[in-house]
Amino acid sequence: MVNDQVDRFFEVLADPTRRQVVRLLGEGPQRAGQLAVAAGVSSPAMSRHLRILLVAGLVADERVVEDARVRVFRLRPEPVVAVQAWLDQVQAHWQEQLGAFKRHVEQTGESS
């Protein structure tokens, strides 16, 4: 499950516009129109990107009480937490490998 979520995260964020949307939403919730202007894309293109981000679970949307036609988008923390956990595992593995290599070099250097 976690690996599927991580794979989907990277697959969805392979697109530079979607990465930009995530960066923009990192500053706070925004409407689709605001995101389209900031990203320099048309409203229909932004709608397609947001739909992909919604289906992947990277963003959530909420209706504005004053106007049910307006939706505000925000980042969901769960996918980011899953990716961070995966990155922590990768880092721990490489730390272990580099530590073993250092010990090997130190041991072979002492025996020379």
Order of helices and strands: HHEHHEEH
**Which percent range fits the helix content?**
over 70%
Mean pLDDT: 87
CATH-assigned homologous superfamily? Winged helix-like DNA-binding domain superfamily/Winged helix DNA-binding domain
Domain HTH arsR-type: 1-98
InterPro entries: ArsR-like_HTH, HTH_ArsR_DNA-bd_dom, WH-like_DNA-bd_sf, WH_DNA-bd_sf
GO molecular function: DNA-binding transcription factor activity
Protein name: Winged helix-turn-helix transcriptional regulator
Write structural notes for this entry.
It holds the Pfam family HTH_5. This protein is of the alpha+beta class. It has one domain (2-111): Arc Repressor Mutant, subunit A. The chain is 71% helix and 15% strand. It has helices at 2-12, 16-26, 32-39, 43-56, 77-111; strands at residues 30-31, 59-64, 67-75. The chain has a 3-stranded antiparallel beta sheet. The radius of gyration is 21 Å and the shape is elongated.
Features:
3 strands, 5 helices, WH-like_DNA-bd_sf, 3-stranded antiparallel beta sheet, 112 residues, alpha+beta, Arc Repressor Mutant, subunit A
Provide a compact summary of the structure.
This protein is of the alpha+beta class and 112 residues long. The chain has helices spanning 2-12, 16-26, 32-39, 43-56, 77-111; strands spanning 30-31, 59-64, 67-75.
